[in-house]
Amino acid sequence: MLKKLDTFEQFEDVLKQEDQFFLLKHSLTCPISDAAYKEYQKYAGEDQSVPTYYLAVQDARPLSNEIAEKFEIKHESPQVLLFNKGEAIWNASHWKITNRSLKTAKGENL
């Protein structure tokens, strides 16, 4: 199940509570982002062993920017990040966000 994050405080709580999780930075107006979101939804529906979160860039620009700055990962949209023990250990953007790439990232990094 996808859970939406809107604030940095919510994100910090997730970092403290979850050992591993995925986070998708999603644009509400971009067709490429929409396709990535659908792939992310498919992954989340099939594999619930790693929690899945997302943020809508238009609704949570400060959070999106803070994550990019804190983890030194250039912002892209769409962009998915895999976190493990408070560190961003993998990321992909645009057409590289697929159900298969998410499964592979989990298998190779966790």
Describe the model.
The chain is built from four helices and five strands. By secondary structure, it is of the alpha/beta class. It is globular and about 30 Å long. It has a single domain, classed as Glutaredoxin (3-Layer(aba) Sandwich). The chain starts with a strand and ends with a helix. Helix content is 44%, strand content 25%. α2 (31-46) crosses α4. The longest helix is centred in the middle third of the chain and has 16 residues, at 31-46. A five-stranded mixed β-sheet has the order 1-3-2-4-5, with helices on both faces.
Topology of this structure?
Blueprint: E1 2-4, H1 8-17, E2 20-26, H2 31-46, E3 52-56, H3 61-71, E4 79-84, E5 87-93, H4 99-109
Parallel strand pairs: 1-3, 2-3
Antiparallel strand pairs: 2-4, 4-5
Helix pairs in contact: 2-4
Number of helices: 4
Helix proportion: 40-55%
Provide the CATH architecture. Answer: 3-Layer(aba) Sandwich
Please write the CATH class name: Alpha Beta
Sheet with the most strands: spatial strand order: 1-3-2-4-5
Instruction: Please name the fourth-level CATH homologous superfamily.
Output: Glutaredoxin
Which secondary-structure class do the elements indicate?
Answer: alpha/beta
Distance between the termini: 19 Å
Number of strands: 5
What is the overall pLDDT average?
96
Order of helices and strands: EHEHEHEEH
Strand content is: 25-35%
Shape annotation:
globular
Ranges with pLDDT <50 over ≥5 residues? none
